Structure formats: structure tokens, C-alpha cells
Amino acid sequence: MTGQGLTCVPLFTVRRQLASGELEPVLTSFMKSTGKLRIVWPSSRHPTPKVRAFVDFVAAELLVTERAGPVSATSQVSA
């Protein structure tokens, strides 16, 4: 991925790549340690099973990311 550009993505989406050194954080003074993530779906009485599964997945990944703490190229990330 070297030289492919810059992106601003949630930490949980690139945690493994940061830990392995495949990606490097840049402009770290602009990084937020907290924030909000909103998942929006069409209004209905209940979300579909697929939407519920996605929401549950994202919530679980965010908890893993929060518990794991900061990421560096030398830190290990559990799968």
C-alpha cells in the first residue's frame, strides 16, 4: 500500500494494518481519540436481521478498539 495516499478512517477499520506496520499514522496531532459514530437505516419498527448483525459487529469492534488502547507499529493486536 506504500504511496497510495492518505485517508481518515475509524481506528477499528485499520487497527491490524497499523499494528503490523503496513500503514503508518500521519498528522497525528489532528487525530481524535474519541468521537461519535452513527449508524442510520430507514425507519421501521425493527431493523432487519442484516442491519442488526452489522450494528452488533460495529459495536463489538469498537469495544475491542477501545480496550486495546493506542496502536503503534510495534504493538500486537489480537485477532
From TrEMBL:
Residues 2-61 form the LysR substrate-binding domain. Coiled coil: none annotated. GO terms for biological process: DNA-templated transcription. One of its GO terms (molecular function) is sequence-specific DNA binding. InterPro entries: LysR-type_TF_proteobact-type, LysR_subst-bd. PANTHER family: HTH-TYPE TRANSCRIPTIONAL REGULATOR (PTHR30537), LYSR FAMILY TRANSCRIPTIONAL REGULATOR (PTHR30537:SF72). Belongs to the LysR transcriptional regulatory family. This is LysR substrate-binding domain-containing protein. It comes from Brevundimonas mediterranea. The lineage of its organism: Bacteria, Pseudomonadati, Pseudomonadota, Alphaproteobacteria, Caulobacterales.
